Amino acid sequence: MMTQVDWIGWLATAVFLVSYFTRSAISLRRVQGVAAGLWALYGVLIHSLPVIVANILVASVAVISSFRKPSALASPP
């Protein structure tokens, strides 16, 4: 039987998968930031420091980069 902790992990997976259906770079980064935040929460609940740290870093970079000017998000020619 799945626990509430398991459901957090599955929710994080689902949110991350949704990011592949976003149409803009900003949306992609924000959705991935939310997913990484959920993974960090999952890491806290399972007491896994590597999962916590890795996902806090990913969430931070994803969210911060989503607030940059659109030209900064564009790939170089």
Biggest pleated-sheet summary? none
- Let me know the average pLDDT: 91
Broad shape: flat
- How many H/I helices? 4
By helix and strand content, what is the structural category? Answer: mainly alpha
Q: How helix-rich are the residues, as a percent range?
A: over 70%
Strand content: under 5%
Low-confidence stretches: none
**What gap, in angstroms, lies between the N and C termini?**
51 Å
What is the number of beta strands? 0
Radius of gyration: 14 Å
- What order do the SSEs take from the amino end to the carboxyl end, as H and E? HHHH
What is the compact description of this entry?
This protein has helices spanning 4-18, 25-45, 49-66, 70-73. By secondary structure, the chain is mainly alpha-helical.
List the keywords.
77 residues; mainly alpha; flat
